[in-house]
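Continuing the series of single-chain predictions for the mutant panel. This is the parent chain; the variants come on the following pages.
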Amino acid sequence: MREPFDHAVILVAQHSRDGALGIIINHPLESRPIARVLDALGADASGISDNVRIFFGGPVSPGTGFVLHTADYGGQATMTIDGRLALSEASGTLRAIGLHNGPKKSLLAFGYAGWGPGQLDGELRAGSWVAVAEDPALVFDDDRSKVWTDAVALHKTNPK
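Parent structure:
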């Protein structure tokens, strides 16, 4: 596929008859202080420390931030994905991370990948995408430059 999906590994957070939403997990952009990101989002940045790595989550709504994280944390705007992972709006979750009471593992992304009703299913049938079982190591732990090759290796050993 062409940019921005060339070699993209996407965690599909929601998939229903109404469409699908996913976050690209292997296109890091830069690191910034969490307080600076919160300021840019118009959120309270007082008492916040640490930096966060920002990812390009997809071409839809690139100004909207999402935090993909472990399910040990949940806020008002958190969507549980599978009991192990969740997706939340950025500002509240980033604030919790900056105060050291957020999720154990997380990934901040701006934008998302979206598909209309039946679109992702059609693209999968056409061979535009391959699906692999969700693996938290791919989402949070693997070297970002190796996520694509690791996902392909997972597909080869356990094709869906």
